[in-house]
Amino acid sequence: LEHFSTTISDAVNFHDAQLLGTRFENTTALGTDFTRANLSNSSFLGANVKRAVFRGADLTAVDFHGANLHQADLTDTNVSDDQLHSALSIHNALLPNGTRAKDRNLVYNG
């Protein structure tokens, strides 16, 4: 079990890594490459992973609550709708089906 909480890293390569149960909580990891990584049961709680590449990664039971997934590449992943809805932003993220995400309107009665 690795713990990267509050670590600041940009464009790190975790390509094909086995990162089961890793905690990336409140981490800034812009453009980091998680291509085909096994991230099962990991946590990105409050993390800023803008432009990160998760292409083909195993995202089973990954916690994305409050995470910034803006422009992230989630192509060919098993990310669920519930996981996406828990994120702070998925704007312009590339979804598993190849479409671009749009954030829901966060302004109510405004």
Explained architecture:
With 110 residues, the protein is mostly loops. The protein is built from one helix and no strands. The protein starts with 80 loop residues before the first helix and ends in a 24-residue tail after the last helix. Residues 105-110 have low confidence and may be disordered.
Number of helices: 1
Strand content: under 5%
Mean pLDDT: 89
Overall shape? globular
For the termini, the CA-CA separation is 44 Å
Helix and strand composition category? little secondary structure
Number of strands: 0
What's the alpha carbon Rg, rounded to whole Å?
A: 13 Å
Which residues form runs of ≥5 with pLDDT under 50?
Answer: 105-110
Helix content: under 10%
Series of secondary-structure elements, N-terminal to C-terminal: H
Question: The biggest beta sheet, please?
Answer: none
List keywords for this structure.
little secondary structure
Present the secondary structure layout:
Elements: H1 81-86
Quick recap:
By secondary structure, this protein is largely without helices or strands.
